Amino acid sequence: MVLDGVNSPEHYAQNLLRGAEAANEAALRAWASWAAARHDTYRLGTTRAEVLETVTHILDAAEERPLRIGKTYRLDEHVLPALFVGGLGSDLDARRAALAETVRLLARAADREPVEPSEKLAGQLDFLLTRTGAAASSQMTAIICGDVAERHGTGGYWRAVEESRGRFPLVGPLANNITPCEFWGRPAEAPTVLDNDVPALLVNATDDPRTLYQGARSLRAQWPSSRLLTVKGARQHGLYGEYGNACVDTRVTAYLRTGRLPAHDPTCDASTRSRGSLSTRTGP
Question: Do the Cβ atoms of 37 and 236 come closer than 8 Å?
């Protein structure tokens, strides 16, 4: 068994982004630095601060009046954070370039220019705004709410959103907003306590903005027969077969093929792309 992107039980809650606000804002800043270094291509600003000002301009314009994207889509300040955060789950150049292309288009829309969505952006907006994404979203909602639904009262969410907005202007409201779980029945069963100790390989990047590295370390500490494969310096959610890291792919494939875990917790470097360097450390 391999768990790629690990959430510890104590952090499994109705809104999985709660607690990850700082990591996602850091991912936004890292992306902004990347985009600034490519200003000649994307024209979003020559410094990280200028790129972040472009993002703020987009959000402010959407709050004033929804952005028009083509003839079909209207994006307000509630939709845009989900669109941004969806592009911050990876530090691969291709993913960052896709977000930069989207932001360049959104910046034009914020200036009230007529814009048409790219095929990729149209697919993302269909997923967010139409029934296209309903099946996948509903399945995830049913699993989470069936496991951990709690009722906090609608006012509590509003207060949490407002309190988070100052520190985390992009991600805070999204991470603390109400979910369908508020209106769900209580879980039918208490959480299952696992008293066995089966082997497993846990895989997590140190800068994963979705499933935080401290959650992976916490679960490793609670799971003695597991091992934690750390990818140092990667700002990536989902590593095996996705990140192009030879060290990760070799380690995970070897475990799946043989069933033998490494003796100690291995560490791969994020920069490994072809022939990987590997180090090991003892314990969680």
Answer: no
Residues 6+ apart with CB under 8 A from 63: 76, 77
What gap in Å lies between CA 214 and CA 211, rounded to an integer?
A: 9
Query: Which pLDDT score, from 0 to 100, does residue 277 have?
Result: 40
Nearest partner of 209 among 111, 88, 123, judged by Cα? 88
The pair of structure tokens assigned to 99 is 């977000």
Q: Token digits for 138?
A: 């509903």
Contacts of 9 (CB under 8 A, 6+ apart): 191, 219, 222
Segment-wise mean pLDDT, segments of 10 residues, the chain, 284 residues: 93 90 97 98 98 97 97 94 95 96 97 95 92 87 91 91 93 94 90 83 97 96 95 96 96 97 96 51 40
User: How far, in Å, CA of 256 to CA of 2, rounded?
Assistant: 8
DSSP code of residue 100: H
Query: What residues have CB less than 8 Å from 260, skipping those under 6 apart?
Result: 254
| Cα(106)–Cα(104) distance, integer angstroms | 5
Q: Do the Cβ atoms of 101 and 146 come closer than 8 Å?
A: no
Whether 207 contacts 234, CB under 8 Å = yes
Give the alpha-carbon dihedral of 157, 161, 164, 166, to 10 degrees: -150
Q: What does the CA dihedral 250, 256, 258, 259 come to, rounded to 10 degrees?
A: 130
